[in-house]
Amino acid sequence: MRVLTKTPIKEHARGRLFKVDFIDEQKTTIEACFYTDETDHFYPLIEEGSEYTIRGAEIATANKRMTSIPHDYRLIFKLTTELVKVYETPTGEKQ
Fold it and tell me: How many CB atoms lie within 10 A of CB 42?
């Protein structure tokens, strides 16, 4: 999944958070949410425009009041979620 947007870190009463909008090869967009511990871990790793494989994120119902993404669900990242950056070779092959 490719990162479309990455928000700045926001402070709130219970900690910190940021959000990422991902798009897949079928042009489906989905929001991902990162809370305090996950913000500390994942924020420096995620770059807008980069592509990642994701394993182990929780799936939750999207809060339609808090997102412009039309998807009915969102991803919630946990410290156990695997995020691996996808690299393209000079021939365009993804690794």
Answer: 18
Q: What are the pLDDT tens digits along the chain (95 aa)? A: 999 999 999 998 889 999 999 999 999 999 999 999 999 999 999 999 999 999 999 999 998 888 888 899 999 999 999 999 998 755 666 66
Q: Note whether 6 and 20 are within 8 A (CB).
A: yes
Question: Is there a domain that residue 91 lies in?
Answer: no
Which domain range does residue 17 map to? 2-86
Under DSSP, is residue 84 helix (H, G, I), strand (E, B) or coil? Answer: strand
pTM here is: 0.86
Q: CA-based angle 59:60:64, to the nearest 5?
A: 135
**Distance (Å, rounded) from C-alpha 83 to C-alpha 57?**
9
| CATH label of the domain that carries residue 8 | 2.40.50.140
**Within a domain: residue 11?**
yes
